[in-house]
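Subgroup meeting minutes
Present: P.N., E.W., G.H.
Scribe: E.W.

1. P.N. recapped why we're keeping a running log of single-chain structure predictions: easier to compare across weeks, and new members can see raw inputs and outputs side by side.
2. G.H. added today's entry (420 aa).
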Amino acid sequence: MFPYGGYAGKGLYVNLTRGTIESRALDKALIEDYLGGNGFGTRLLWDQVGPEVDPLGPENLLIFAHGPLCGTTMPTSSRMEVIAKSPLTGIYGDANAGGFFGPELKFAGWDLVVIRGQASQPVYLSISDDRAELRDAAGLWGLPTSQTEAAIRSELCDPQIKTATIGPAGENQVRFAGIQVTSQRSAARCGLGAVMGAKQLKAIAVRGHGPVRVADPARFIDVTARLHRRTRDNAIFPAVSAHGTPGIAALMDALGRFPTRNFQMGAFPEIARIDADALEGRAMVRHLACFGCTVACDKLHYLPDGPYAGTTLRSVEYETLSSLGSGVWNADLDSILAANRLCDELGMDTISAGRAISFAMELWDEEILNRDDTGGLALHWGDEEMTLQLLKMIAHREGFGDLLAEGVRRAAQVIGRGAE
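Output recorded in log:
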């Protein structure tokens, strides 16, 4: 048995160029110094990916790693890190997600998955306990994230499989493409979905049945039980549990810290139309939680009527209410939820996507951009239909969306004329 409690004791190393998969024992020094998660990822990236490496090239590493508490009864311990050199910033990239994928990877007996190289055609990585194989994903390429997960579960005849998938944004190497993990959680930041797309890796599917061993089970259960009680007794627990991160939208607005109109303002005059109370009154179905979490800040939302009727989604966040709401001067909550769901399906970070659009709207307002630049599009504040159209154009790198897919900094450099 591996001598450290909480660890499976091994990592999965995949070379997509060669089509090889290797199991390696976990370095005990790595555990002693870096514990897990982004500690593991940062060390490996530092050692193996130099400044000359193209983030979208085969030599970049894509690392999925979690810590020793993941998959246990410890509160809020379902988090998983994805690490790579970022195609958006050119430096260290770190995206974090909750949900169920991280614990399932631990149950399968793996502390980390390290992916190098580039497949010659689309593939996905299937992990079932200690068995791993690369499978053909040509039929999955182009699918949105939810359909990808459904297709993999059907192909492998197991509805309990957990996935990490990219959508069209990752396939088209949008520099802020994210990775969607079961269920509707987003490892969204830094463009790591674009790294996955460049490697022609459509998804990772994992199913595990093993235990997470701890050194002293009785003491561990006692400690985690006390921490669950302390969490629930905390003064801010009721608000955080009831509202999730949208609960701070009204607070940030009152403090003048709610990014509005591409950060030109810190308060949104129509905050009451998109804050947590509005969200719950309009679309709340029930509370949900990530694996083993007592907070249950996740929610199931549903739009029963209107132009976006039938839109169902989880994980509406404070940042999204700003980036796709106040940031583009949009007070239509239904369209914000529709845009959120669209980003999830396309596999794209709601924050960077919304900021790219609000940036373009400000440039239009300042007459730095015109129809010749945008391919005939008029980029007016508050145009919810235009926001949804641009999200699709960005993900598919169509027309003006191709420029915004490069991110705000690169787009500004190309546009010039004061855009910087």
